[in-house]
Amino acid sequence: MTVLQGKGSEQMSMQSVAQEAGVSVGLIYRYFANKEDVLRSVIVGVLEDIEARVPAAILAAGEDPVDQVAAGFDAYCRVIAENSEAAVITYRESSRLSAENRTLIKDLEMGSVQPLGRATQEAVEAGLFAPVDVDLFAYNLVLLAHGWALKSWYFQPQHTVDSYIRGQLALVLSAALTPDHHIEYSRYLTAKED
Amino acid sequence: MTVLQGKGSEQMSMQSVAQEAGVSVGLIYRYFANKEDVLRSVIVGVLEDIEARVPAAILAAGEDPVDQVAAGFDAYCRVIAENSEAAVITYRESSRLSAENRTLIKDLEMGSVQPLGRATQEAVEAGLFAPVDVDLFAYNLVLLAHGWALKSWYFQPQHTVDSYIRGQLALVLSAALTPDHHIEYSRYLTAKED
Amino acid sequence: MTVLQGKGSEQMSMQSVAQEAGVSVGLIYRYFANKEDVLRSVIVGVLEDIEARVPAAILAAGEDPVDQVAAGFDAYCRVIAENSEAAVITYRESSRLSAENRTLIKDLEMGSVQPLGRATQEAVEAGLFAPVDVDLFAYNLVLLAHGWALKSWYFQPQHTVDSYIRGQLALVLSAALTPDHHIEYSRYLTAKED
Amino acid sequence: MTVLQGKGSEQMSMQSVAQEAGVSVGLIYRYFANKEDVLRSVIVGVLEDIEARVPAAILAAGEDPVDQVAAGFDAYCRVIAENSEAAVITYRESSRLSAENRTLIKDLEMGSVQPLGRATQEAVEAGLFAPVDVDLFAYNLVLLAHGWALKSWYFQPQHTVDSYIRGQLALVLSAALTPDHHIEYSRYLTAKED
DNA sequence: GATGAATGAGGCTTCATTCAT
DNA sequence: TATGAATGAAGCCTCATTCAT
């Protein structure tokens, strides 16, 4: 069942969560053991969404590692954008979780970096990317994706998700691509108007 | 006065803040109107630190815009690293502040991006940087600096602040520098062992 | 109907009572007006059991008042032992009942003392018992019977209901019997092994 | 400190406990970790009172074991009478305690029987008491003492604590004393008017 | 100035009760 | 009849805030 559709918002009191979900407080406790369980569920939900959609996007991008990185980042950003409230909750509330749940979330998040890391690694090995620090590069992709949710107030007026993704891809790919391949992938490097 | 030196930690109740600071609850209320005031003070403190040290570092970096960007980013990261608990609090607690205080913090943070933005702009105009999206580039610097505090659990074992700064500079500068100038600034682009 | 067979246990929430009884919560509310009604029913059930079996045991004991007292106490103890959970509930929950129901239960309990009181009275009048305080003596019998349920943790390892009854009878009858009749009723006064 | 002076009453909600004690809810949590802690403290308080006063009374009773039993029972009853609300709480709420605390209370209660048991034992060995089941006899004394609190509604109109103690002593001592010693201890055996 | 005992509103959670199926 | 999902009032507990000392 999908109590908790439009989770998020600002208030995280069980009363307000219930009200927003349009159910009673008591009903939440039929599906979740306690508040921490609700929180974990929301956060893990986003991470599972990422786990489902980012690898899929990479797979659908074909053989080219650069296309894979671009597609993976694109998908990551879109999941975050579609769940930006939940993404923000991750930063705001995860310190309230038990050590166990925090570990769970860390592990899932670290796992979510890996597909991007693998594509990056392949791009490096194929000579398409300069020999960048693969881990750092991949993690930056994740951080930039989160940035859209964390700093929406900063980007929102001037950017849409599309333009944000395009802009960030232009930056990060030009950081990584060897000069020889800039023209080949110029479709990612030119910031188009939106 | 310097009540609230090493606040931070995890607990943000006034009683635990007092205990950690080694003072009584009552004393905090002599210096701060209420909890929100304490929070704002902590957050604004970090931002003022940035406001003081990042421009100073840029100034000290000399005429070269690329050196300025590097020095500014370096300083930004170090302030965050020295106040990582407060930096995390910004993300965790700012949603609990009044609209007014949130606006104040946003303004300060947007202001903190500007020195980095100006240096970036100059680098572009001097032909040292490719024509990147200056705002986005500058904001990414800030986000990556915050990343050190937000994701310490991810980077900590393998990275020190120094290696983190070096690694990130290598990435972001190779993103921006035109191929012609890679050699000139190769000191930033090679990740050295630490 | 016999919803609520082996209620008891520790949990007294309607949901757990229902689960233990193997029925739905809703069904309980078809047979009982509310929780207090369930409670009263459980408690009254035990008292009615006593009201049915103690006089019957006394009747079956024949003419001898001492045998009647012994038989009555024996029966009282056995009803309590067979319903020890419900007996404990009486002590634990009766303060939650309405004044009206508490009065009802008091009256039933006072009534349950009477057959023991009458037999005691006859024993005194027949010169078998010393002139004890009949009310107190009879009530002690009830209290000692309850003691089996209330303090099972104290008696359980060393005593069975049988040995408990035998031991208590030995004590209370030797308290009451005049010295002249000790031998006549020595069958009650010697604690046998079990 | 003595928050919780006149504990007891009927209501055991923290709100009502606070109100009755004339303090705020919050203050209770400065002295007690949680509700269970309050409960345990009340119950243990009575048991410690017994532990203090019953042995003292026995000691003060002199060398005679029968006097000791009488004095011990007298003291036990008076502690219960002075704390009858707390004594009732023991029966009503101890099932809500953690296993650990229940064990603690059992142990204290079993300990509280011992002084009475020892005096009884001595009386038996001195040939003053018939060879009764010492454990059972001693425990009955405790149960009868509790009886005053548990069944106050039954005894109250006709009995004071004094007359209750006198009446019970007459019963239990005549149960135990060998016929030879009835006259010697007749001061305990005759129920006087009150 | 400095303390920390005291307060009580507000948040989490349980559970008696209802009602649509 | 029988079910069990849904409700929401009430209880436990925390913690921002005050104030007598």
Q: Which CATH class of the largest domain in chain A applies here?
A: Mainly Alpha
Alpha-beta content class of chain A: mainly alpha
The number of strands of chain A is 0
Tell me about the largest β-sheet of chain A: none
Count structural domains of chain A.
Answer: 2
CATH topology of the largest domain in chain A: Tetracycline Repressor, domain 2
Largest protein-protein interface: A-B, 36 and 36 residues
Average predicted confidence as pLDDT of chain A: 89
What CATH architecture label of the largest domain in chain A applies?
Answer: Orthogonal Bundle
Give the percentage of residues in beta strands of chain A. under 5%
